[in-house]
Amino acid sequence: MNRINQVNNINKTNNINAIKPKELRRAEFKSKFEKIKSEQVREHLKNIYDKIVEQSDKIGEKLYLKDLIEYKKLVREFLNVAVNNSHVFSQQNFLDRRGRHRVYGIVKNVDRELSALTREFLNEEVDRLSIIKKLDGIKGMLLDVFM
């Protein structure tokens, strides 16, 4: 009977040790997945940025409405991808000293390089964006007159 208990204890010990490597493998997979996702996002942003530069050169040569609309679309896409992938929202629940429930929402900057790239892009494109803003204002006024 004593020998059977020893065998049962060995099996329980092996099961406990088998769980830890699974957790480690999940953590490793998650970190690799995040790295691959980050690289794909950077590559996508680089492609969009190259298209924006090409489009801004077209606008610099001659200002056509079609080119301006495409430029706005590319800028919107660039900013959308950059903002959605550079910050993570997390929520923390806890009790304060008086026992009251507190909820804090925290926005963490995940990729500082991505944020820096976005800031640099905005600084370079301020002049063109102001032109687009003025054109949108004129378009709005024309629609008001038309209606």
Automatic annotation (TrEMBL):
Stored InterPro entries: DUF327, TM1646-like_dom_sf
Record-given protein name: DUF327 domain-containing protein
Species: Tepidibacter thalassicus DSM 15285
Taxon lineage: Bacteria, Bacillati, Bacillota, Clostridia, Peptostreptococcales
